Prior knowledge:
With 160 residues, the protein is mostly helical.
Amino acid sequence: MADQSPSQPFMTDLFRLLEETFEQHQGIYLDKGTSLFETLDTISAQEASQPVSATCASIAAQVAHVCFYVELLTAYMRGEEPGPVDWGEIWRTVEAVTPEEWAASKQRLRASYEQVMHLLKSGDGWNDAMADALAIVVHTAYHLGEIRQALCTLKPAVDN
């Protein structure tokens, strides 16, 4: 079967899902102000460094994992073979971050997201990239939920 590009409506919806997950509310599934980047902008390095419990990762580790995942899938989408992948390394090694490390981690995630968006918008290898793009949306949405749940513990609501 010949390589075919996905329909324009599908591509438009996929980009909207990615933008809502990472950047800002598009009216699809998130509440206003709860995208990944908007959420991370409300979190200090100290808060990002605190594990939610003895068995849970810190928000800093969650962000490092999402960045790693996006970078890895971007490499696959480019036809690269990254070699052996240690999925557990981040969970074992990332916990506390300084304010500088936290800012760098958020910037690295944003740059990774921008790279994958640029690659997807170029349209090269769409059929091969479609599953990876959908996986990025779903996997990142899962970790966004983890981060938002962690915030319920780290930043309890203040009664007005």
